[in-house]
Amino acid sequence: MKNEFVTRYEGNPILTKDDIPYPVQTVHNAAVTRFDGRYIMLFRSHLDTGRSIIGLARSDDGFNFKADPRPFMVPSNDPAFHRYEAFGVEDPRITYLEGAYYITYSAYSDRGVRTGLAKTADFKSVERLAFITQADYRNTVLFPEKINGDFVRLDRPHSDISPWSIWVSFSPDLIHWGRSQLVIKPVKYHWDEARIGPGAPPIRTDKGWLNIYHGVFPTMDGHVYRLGAALHKLDEPQVVLGVGDRWLLQPEDPWELVGYVHNVVFTCGAVPEDDGTLKLYWGAADKVMCAGTAVIDELIDLCLTDSRPPI
Ligand code: BMA
Fold first, then answer.
1. 91 lines ligand 1 (CB under 6 A)
2. From the CA of 129, how far away is ligand 1's center (Å)?
3. Which residue is closest in CA terms to ligand 1's atom 4?
4. CATH 2.115.10.20 is held by the domain 7-308
5. What is the pLDDT of residues 122-174, one digit of tens each?
6. Which of 69, 277, 285, 307 has the greatest number of CB atoms lying within 10 Å of its CB?
7. From atom 9 of ligand 1, which residue's Cα is the shortest distance away?
8. pLDDT tens-place string over residues 78-105
9. What CA–CA distance (Å, rounded) separates 31 from 41?
10. Spatial distance between the Cα atoms of 117 and 95, rounded to a whole number of angstroms
């Protein structure tokens, strides 16, 4: 039975704070997309205030990235947005949807964490559109196309009663969301038992939407963050066809085991390629960025042939 799903890039980590031309403490939890024949990465960095901003790096091959001279998103000056992002912007995701690149990100303030939605056509300027959740939501990922006339997203609300789980919601306009329902829950005494959350925006495959998510296990030495995979029905994404019982990536390299927060691999993006592989990107120990490749069919097999119950 296959148990190595991700081939790590031999040049990991691919981007660190030493590569950034302005002062940052970390480079992690980055979204990656294809743009204009190249790869664009939006990465989170801690400043030495402990708050986060989002930078941009560009690459020809998806592994060797060069950061732009200035950050891409810092807390907005616009009072309508600043009120909810004063503590920083974190963990971006990018989805190419109907001709534009949409960015979802976690906006932090003394009112909690909520999801911001922004848009860019050129990765030079960025327009904030709206906050699309109230407080206590993170990890919002948009599906890359409308399904039955609706925009669709996955997200992860916080709860005191239920373990933090993956939910789906629908929208006519990307701003107003509803018909929400829980779709995948952590499993007791399992690698994802403490909480789970969406990671990379879903990837369309012939067999369904591939959802690469993170799961957290509590230990005496703190929490361990790993990655797993689930498959959602193409025309009914609220239907989960399978969730892999086993993780597909766990902290193993030294920079994944030790860093700003140890024992963390956390993804905000994966890029499917024409040859049936995908490039997977993950923040390691909340400090550096890493990349690897996986075969999409092997991830689908993991979801469908070695499944655990979604709920
Ligand atoms: C989560 C988020 C992520 C982070 C992870 C591990 O709660 O803050 O951004 O990577 O914890 O510290």
1. yes
2. 25
3. 286
4. yes
5. 999 999 999 999 999 999 999 999 999 999 999 999 999 999 999 999 999 99
6. 285
7. 91
8. 999 999 999 999 999 999 999 999 999 9
9. 6
10. 11
